[in-house]
Amino acid sequence: MTIGIPPVIDAAQSVGTNADRAYEIMREQLIMLEIRPGEPINDDRLAEQLGLGRTPIREGLKRLERERLVVAYPRRGTFATAVDMTDLANISEIRKQLEPAASARAARTATRASRDRLTELAASIASIDDTDDPREVLRKDVAVHREIYRASGNPHLEDILVSLDAHATRIWCLFLDRLPNVAGHVREHVVLLQAIIDGDADTAAELTLEHVTGFENAIRELL
Questions:
Q1: 172 contacts 219 by C-beta, under 8 angstroms
Q2: How many CB atoms lie within 10 A of CB 8?
Q3: Do residues 137 and 156 touch, judged by C-beta distance below 8 A?
Q4: In terms of Cα–Cα distance, which of 66, 95, 93, 99 is closest to 81?
Q5: N or C: which end of the chain has fewer CB within 10 A?
Q6: What pTM, to 2 d.p., does this model score?
């Protein structure tokens, strides 16, 4: 297991901040399957790698357990959860309802600052090349989804969708080497982002539903 290590945090910062940092690092590794499904997670080793105490690591792992990204077994330890393909239908069912709602709401209510961030993301996504590293392309996909959820201005909706997208991304990563045209799939977001920026709620909802449905269909074709 390889963990990227950001700059060292000042020792005076709070345990809560360190726990947030540990949580974010571990969460990305789990979502991108850099911590493999079923892999044991050693909190002592993580603490050493990240330059943090064991308490922030454990706090981060508690949050990840609530999100079903890790599972703890008494006397056995903590492990990355398996990627359960039976979850695909359940995840897609909810995303088909909530993702279009979030996009439409963002189109109606996003702040000027949010629209500016979406504009920057649209330019970044438009520049994706078919030869780009699929994992880096997928990271941009995650960034787009999170920014749309944030732009919706509903923190409860945002939290639900961030969690669902994490599990959807894990499924995507499992098939990443076999999926055709990942770059093209992610570039679809350009017109969606523009619809949100322009305040076109109906088009944003329609494009979002097409995108979520396309994700599910692409995975099912490989099963």
A1: yes
A2: 9
A3: no
A4: 66
A5: C
A6: 0.86
